[in-house]
Amino acid sequence: MNTKQIIIGCDHGGFVLKGQLIKHLQRRGFDVCDVGTYSADSCNYPDIADALCKKIQNGEFERGILVCGTGIGMSIAANKHSGIRAAACENTFSARMTRMHNDANVLCLGERVVGAGLACDMVDLFTDTDFEGGRHTLRVGMLNDLDK
Ligand code: RB5
Predict the structure, then answer these.
(1) Could you read off the pLDDT of 23-72 as tens digits, one per residue?
(2) Atom 2 in ligand 1: residue holding the nearest Cα
(3) Of 5, 26, 64, 114, which has the most beta carbons under 10 Å away?
(4) Which of 16, 37, 48, 68 most suits a substitution to test ligand 1, by most atoms within 8 Å of the C-beta?
């Protein structure tokens, strides 16, 4: 990543894991912007995905992490935003490949699916893996065209 800044958000289903990921990222020297939710009370994941994605769309942040129960609702909501390439990942291979091939800018994780150790490893791959470019540049461009 160009900066050690990252944005993170969750719903009630991802609240505990989000706290663990924030500590992990801060230990790694990241400045973490937390868009909520700030308690374990029930809330609606599309609101959180929207708040986070808007801050990527306006250039405040390059990459973000969204946590819900499965990672799926957050990824569906995030991918409705132009310029957002969100990937719900459950393993390290996918987390690495979605950076290399899709230039993913949002990683979505499920607290009810993965443990904190695996989630931290996926976050590290998401922040530290570069986009491969080459033939994938055309394809990511085609994704961007689908936004129009
Ligand atoms: C909340 O119960 C749950 O539906 C949400 O966290 C998420 O898993 C949705 O995809």
Answers:
(1) 999 999 999 999 999 999 999 999 999 999 999 999 999 999 999 999 99
(2) 13
(3) 64
(4) 68
pLDDT at residue 119 greater than cutoff 90: yes
Question: Has 53 been annotated as catalytic?
Answer: no
Spatial contact of 122 and 114, defined as CB atoms under 8 Å apart: yes
Beta carbon of 9 within 6 Å of any ligand 1 atom: no
- Asked if residue 114 lies in contact with residue 88, where contact means CB atoms within 8 angstroms, the answer is no
Which pTM value belongs to this model?
0.98
**Can you tell me the distance from the alpha carbon of 110 to that of 104, in angstroms, rounded to the nearest whole number?**
17
Q: Is 25 in the pocket of ligand 1 (CB under 6 A)?
A: no
106-110 and 64-68: which strand pairing? parallel
- Identify whether the C-beta of residue 125 lies closer than 8 Å to the C-beta of residue 96: yes
Encode 95-122: b = buried (16+ Cβ within 10 Å), e = exposed.
bbbbbeebbbbbbbbbbebbeeebbbbb
- Between the CA of 68 and the centroid of ligand 1 the distance, in Å, is 5
